[in-house]
């Protein structure tokens, strides 16, 4: 009977992990599975509980950092965030004082302004430093 209880606990922990995807309950599912194996040979519930606690704690302490490093990647930049750091070409002289300037980036024409108020001539390669509304803030590529 103890084996069934431990397997039910393991199944519940796996369901919780699937529902949350937070790497919080999977370690306890492992502890419950080991306790289910121990329950096949030992009827003492206290020993089973101690095995559950030890195995869960060991899994939590030693494998969680490894799993997080592999699974929790930095989110991929999307939309305008992905433009920062990209190189573009000036199609219209950039002059902040005259509020004019344009660049071509990934086949699209963007309004542009200089990061440090310098005038940037047409056909110059620039790097996108920021996005302000619908304007790209750029500086000369090095």
Overview of the molecule:
- The protein folds into 2 domains: 70 residues, no CATH class; 62 residues, Beta Barrel (OB fold (Dihydrolipoamide Acetyltransferase, E2P)).
- The chain is built from 3 helices and 5 strands; from the N terminus they run H-H-H-E-E-E-E-E.
- Helix 1 runs antiparallel to helix 2 and helix 2 runs antiparallel to helix 3.
- The mean pLDDT is 89.
What is shown here, in short?
Helix content is 44%, strand content 25%. With 142 residues, the protein is an alpha+beta fold.
Structural class: alpha+beta
**DSSP strand count:** 5
Nearest-integer average pLDDT: 89
Helix content: 40-55%
Order of helices and strands: HHHEEEEE
Numbering strands along the chain, what is their spatial order in the largest sheet?
1-2-3-5-4
How many strands, what sense, and barrel or not for the largest sheet? Answer: 5 strands, mixed, barrel
**What is the subunit organization of this protein?**
single chain
Radius of gyration: 29 Å
C-alpha termini separation: 71 Å
């Amino acid at each position: 009977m103890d084996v069934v209880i431990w397997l039910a606990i393991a199944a519940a922990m796996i369901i919780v992990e699937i529902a949350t995807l937070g790497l919080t309950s999977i370690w306890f599912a492992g502890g419950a599975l080991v306790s289910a194996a121990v329950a096949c040979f030992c009827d003492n519930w206290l020993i089973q509980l101690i095995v559950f606690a030890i195995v869960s704690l060991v899994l939590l302490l030693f494998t969680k950092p490894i799993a997080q490093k592999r699974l929790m990647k930095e989110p991929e930049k999307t939309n305008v965030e992905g433009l920062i750091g990209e190189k573009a070409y000036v199609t219209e002289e950039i002059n902040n004082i005259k509020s004019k300037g344009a660049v071509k980036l990934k086949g699209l024409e963007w309004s542009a302004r200089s990061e440090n108020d310098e005038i940037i001539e047409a056909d110059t390669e620039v790097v996108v430093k920021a996005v302000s509304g619908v304007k790209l803030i750029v500086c000369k590529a090095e």
